[in-house]
């Protein structure tokens, strides 16, 4: 972990949370974002995304195209958020105050907390399942893993980066072997595929699931780029974030599509165990256990992000002092809530997972459109940092432009959504094709641009020459 003479780390523990990171505490390089986000995508939930197309009858080739293209599309939007961290020196979601106001931003902030905790629940269930294949006491492992994730999050930003970076080397090495074994065991063998056809609805469903899954990472990005130097090159930062985020998620999603194309109702962990043992007996256990580091590390990332968003919600209602104690308490509360939900989760979580991914996509797409249009097009990177931090600052309590664009985009998506309990009329007319996220991006982005043209640029807290217009 980097030592910061200004005291950003106290006995190795980060003390900052939703406050601004000054230039004297900046450290790190653009390429560090690559392995960090690779591990963030190199998780079993990414593999589950790849199950969707084959489960709807989509052949392996088409499923792979849908997974890869969907992941690339979603990661592009996710990576564009990386530029906001070093430019503003703030966590990702507090920046929403500039578009929605300090009170208006409570909705996207609460949405982010829901997503963080939801991800942790599914990840802890999967991690507990992995350990229970070889060790007794599944629910005990939930507790152990949750405690480890919370400890990593309590130490903070630099440890999270270190853990994610070095875990990426381990998981890539093992899964490179597993991937070769899977290709030899299924596509290049005499195995009979269970899904061979093409359906436009299935292709779009798989594409939307992969794209929405990656867009969901948008709420994280600046949290882990805000300590980078302010003069870091835009292209390198966005490029490394895209490369890492896309590679990890697309790799695991593609592996899931291969499994699901040949195995009816596949189980991710059991398939890893089976395919791994084709390399040599016992390697299947190594492959299964190799999923744990990413699940644990990313659970720490989720707990940290949920703490930042929840603290910002509290600060919007009643001004809080972002102390180390508040950060630690926040992380522990988030960890406890996630653990409680995990312990009560039903065994059949796959249906819940796909519904969760869909709802998450529908909630996040309008936010990412508004946030990115504001940063890159409307204000062009110029913000008053002090007024974002201050809930009573120049951006106000309620920013009607951002709220109108967000809810306008969300409402426009309703006829296009596909959920286990509701299917929009346009989607029915198109045979089940899910175009909701495309509609949401376009409507929210265009509507915000139209409403926000000529909005005053607030940069009172920083000299204009210190606020660089992003490339």
TrEMBL record:
InterPro entries: Pur-cyt_permease, Pur-cyt_permease_Fcy2/21/22. The keyword Lipid metabolism does not apply. Its main location: membrane. It comes from the Bacteria. It is found in: Membrane. The chain crosses the membrane at residues 36-54, 60-80, 100-119, 139-160, 167-188, 194-216, 237-263, 283-305, 326-349, 355-377, 398-423, 429-451. It is a multi-pass membrane protein. Keywords: Membrane, Transmembrane, Transmembrane helix, Transport. Belongs to the purine-cytosine permease (2.A.39) family. This is Purine-cytosine permease family protein.
């Amino acid at each position: 972990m980097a030592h910061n003479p200004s005291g950003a780390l106290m006995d190795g523990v980060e003390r900052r949370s939703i406050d601004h990171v000054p230039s004297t505490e900046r450290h790190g390089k653009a390429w560090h974002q690559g392995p960090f986000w690779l591990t963030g995508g190199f998780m079993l939930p990414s593999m589950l995304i790849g199950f969707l197309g084959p489960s709807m009858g989509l052949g392996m080739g088409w499923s792979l195209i849908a997974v890869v293209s969907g992941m690339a599309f979603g990661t592009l939007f996710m990576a564009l958020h990386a530029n906001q961290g070093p430019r503003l020196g703030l966590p990702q979601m507090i920046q929403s105050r500039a578009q929605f106001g300090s009170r208006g931003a409570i909705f996207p902030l609460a949405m982010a907390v829901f997503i963080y905790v939801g991800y942790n629940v599914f990840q802890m269930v999967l991690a507990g399942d992995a350990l229970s294949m070889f060790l007794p006491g599944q629910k005990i492992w939930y507790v152990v893993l949750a405690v480890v994730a919370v400890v990593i999050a309590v130490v903070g930003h630099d440890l999270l980066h270190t853990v994610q970076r070095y875990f990426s080397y381990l998981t890539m090495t093992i899964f490179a072997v597993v991937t070769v074994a899977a290709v030899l065991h299924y596509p290049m063998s005499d195995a009979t595929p269970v899904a061979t056809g093409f359906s436009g609805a299935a292709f779009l469903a798989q594409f939307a699931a992969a794209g929405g899954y990656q867009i969901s990472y948008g709420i994280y990005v600046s949290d882990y780029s805000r300590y980078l130097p302010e003069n870091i090159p835009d292209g390198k930062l966005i490029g490394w974030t895209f490369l890492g985020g896309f590679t990890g998620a697309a790799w695991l999603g593609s592996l899931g599509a291969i499994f699901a194309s040949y195995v009816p109702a596949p189980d991710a962990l059991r398939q890893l165990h089976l395919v791994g043992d084709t390399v040599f007996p016992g390697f299947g256990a190594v492959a299964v256990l190799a999923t744990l580091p990413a699940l644990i590390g990313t659970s720490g990332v989720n707990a940290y992000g949920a703490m930042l968003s929840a603290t910002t919600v509290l600060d919007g209602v009643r001004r809080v002092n972002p102390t180390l104690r508040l950060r630690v308490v926040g992380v522990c509360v988030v960890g406890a809530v996630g653990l409680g939900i995990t312990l009560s989760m039903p065994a059949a979580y796959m249906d819940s997972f796909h519904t969760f991914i869909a709802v998450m996509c529908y909630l996040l797409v309008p936010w990412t459109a508004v946030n990115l249009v504001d940063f890159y097009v409307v204000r062009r990177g110029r913000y008053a940092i002090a007024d974002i931090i201050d809930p009573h600052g120049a951006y106000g309590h309620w920013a009607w432009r951002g709220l109108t664009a967000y809810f306008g985009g969300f409402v426009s998506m309703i006829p296009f959504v596909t959920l286990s309990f509701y299917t929009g009329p346009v989607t029915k007319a198109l045979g089940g094709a899910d175009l909701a996220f495309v509609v949401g991006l376009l409507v929210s982005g265009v509507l915000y641009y139209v409403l926000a043209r000529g909005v005053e640029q607030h940069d009172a807290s920083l000299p204009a020459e210190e606020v660089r217009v992003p490339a």
